[in-house]
Design brief:
Number of helices: 12
Strand content: 15-25%
Shape: globular
CATH topology of the largest domain: UDP-n-acetylglucosamine1-carboxyvinyl-transferase, Chain
Distance between the termini: 7 Å
CATH class of the largest domain: Alpha Beta
Radius of gyration: 21 Å
Largest sheet: 4 strands, mixed
Strand order of the largest sheet: 22-23-1-24
Number of domains: 2
Number of strands: 24
CATH architecture of the largest domain: Alpha-beta prism
Length: about 425
């Protein structure tokens, strides 16, 4: 389905959707604990539902209410695997698949993981190799894959520059093993904020992770202990689209936007959006009563090292498209392994709207213009490209048509509803 955005001023106050990254982790910790857990949250996405379905296959149950998830832990003993294997369908959620795989390898003798969209093209080899080192056997390094062999203990080695989700998936497994186990990260860790988020989520459930240089340790035979009720904080990654809208100056630039529910103490790496927008020249107030408020300023191009904040590249590229001078985004090679090749799809999105952008091996170089013209954008089946195109409409003289806008359901189903609440004009074609 396509959507047409007629450029208009967007402004107001918004309650930010909960962090889906954190909710994945809280769901798994809750399912592994000894008693029921209530997870308070604002908004549920397709990716979260994928994790719910996989946990229910394992024997947990999750009751979904409007602003909460009620999680009943895995039943003991776990359901026996049928002869063909236990099947986990992970939708398009890489986080789900990379967290569920180590758990499946612990609980079941045989298991199959499948996925939709671009997920079967995304890498799993480092995680598979780590699990093979302790006796697992896999018929493939990508989805669909079938595995055999149960993990009972282990010392894992894994690269840190492909996906931090591999490290998080192993960390979630370690307390269940028979003896002290470790994960040694063999290359510099990128997106390390997500690993810290995993550690903090586990701490809420009574699991302490020790770190020594590049290794993480957890004593074995531990039990996740539910605190009863937990609350998922706001999602900096999705809030970034509205923050970037508010930072723009253009024919229909956004007015002042305030976002409630974000924490400056968060482990989410994407809170770096605050300092990046300030470097561009926007005004960001983090101490206001209405939450975090962003105002447009005189924007100038900057250099951005995207190694720790890859998900921010699409919306920041929109800001760069009207920032005076040149913006260089580098160390973003991992973007080629997302729901789309985000280096190419971000470039294509901006080019379709009239921006001056070119790709490099590991990023983008963007020369700012005074405004963009509008046009037709291919959403590339990627939620972050669709939302970035909507943000870019504030800069455009003419309407923006986004093809395949329903991709937002992956992380933020209510995005266009919130966009219209803030004054955006969006019509499904």
């Amino acid at each position: 389905m396509d959507i047409k955005i007629t450029p208009s001023q967007v402004s107001g106050t918004l309650d930010v959707i909960s962090s889906k990254s954190l909710v994945h982790r809280l769901l798994i910790c809750a399912a592994l604990s000894g008693k029921d857990t209530c997870i308070n949250l604002n908004g549920i996405s397709d990716d979260i539902l994928s994790t719910v379905r996989c946990l229910e296959v394992m024997g947990s149950s999750v009751k979904i209410e409007r602003r909460k998830l009620l999680v009943t832990p895995l039943k003991k003993p776990l359901p026996d695997a049928p002869p063909s294997s236990v099947a986990f369908h992970c939708g398009e959620s890489g986080t789900t698949a990379r967290f569920i795989l180590p758990l499946a390898a612990h609980f079941f003798d045989k298991y199959t993981l499948t996925g939709d969209g671009k997920l079967p093209q995304r890498p799993f080899a480092p995680l598979c190799e780590a699990l093979r080192s302790v006796g697992c056997v896999f018929d493939n390094n990508r989805l669909p894959m079938t595995g055999t062999g149960r993990v009972s203990k282990g010392k894992f080695k894994i690269a840190g520059n492909i996906s931090s989700q591999f490290i998080s998936g192993l960390l979630l497994l370690l307390p269940l093993l028979d003896s002290e186990s470790r994960v040694k990260v063999t290359t510099p860790l990128e997106s390390d904020g997500y690993v810290q988020m995993t550690i903090e989520a586990m701490a809420l459930f009574g699991i302490a992770v020790e770190k020594d240089k590049a290794s993480y340790y957890i004593s074995g035979n531990r039990r996740y202990d539910s605190p009863g009720t937990v609350t998922a904080e706001g999602d900096w990654s999705n809030a970034a689209f509205f923050m970037c809208m508010s930072a723009l100056r253009g024919p229909h630039h956004a007015g002042e936007i305030s976002l409630r529910g974000l924490s400056m103490r968060s482990d989410q790496g994407d809170k770096e959006i605050v300092e990046l927008l300030r470097r561009f020249g926007a005004t960001v107030n983090t101490a206001g009563e209405e939450g975090i408020t962003v105002k447009a300023g005189t924007l100038r191009g900057i250099d951005i090292d995207a190694s720790q904040i890859p998900d921010l590249v699409p919306p920041l590229s929109v800001v760069a498209s009207v920032a005076e001078g040149e913006t260089k985004i580098y160390n973003a090679r991992r973007l080629r392994l997302k729901e789309s090749d985000r280096i190419l799809s971000t470039s294509a999105m901006l080019s379709a709207l009239g921006a001056d952008v070119r790709t490099t091996e590991d990023g983008l170089i963007i020369r700012g213009k005074e405004k963009l013209r509008g046009g037709i954008v291919d959403g590339a089946g990627d939620h972050r490209i669709v939302m970035s195109a909507a943000a870019a409409s504030c800069l455009c003289e003419s309407p923006v048509v986004i093809k395949g806008f329903m991709a937002v359901n992956k992380s933020y189903p209510g995005f266009f509803g919130d966009f219209k609440t803030m004054g955006g004009v969006a019509d499904v074609l």
